[in-house]
Amino acid sequence: MRINNIKSLIERFLNDYCIEVRDDETDDYVELMMDNHKCVDYNGHLYYLPEDLSLDESDQLLEEMIINTLLYGS
Asked: pTM of the full predicted structure?
């Protein structure tokens, strides 16, 4: 698989399922989001990834790859 295909898959997943972290978020909002989201870092942008997604098999595999490689702070 070509690297551009992988990038496209990751970007699609982030756009479809995640919320980009904004600079102006309050501490309370961040704490609320972190209760049921993971935070991933892709290309210098942080995204909240919900922990309770209902995904098909291919998106589940992509989610696992994103968590294992892009988890913020790991």
From this structure: 0.90
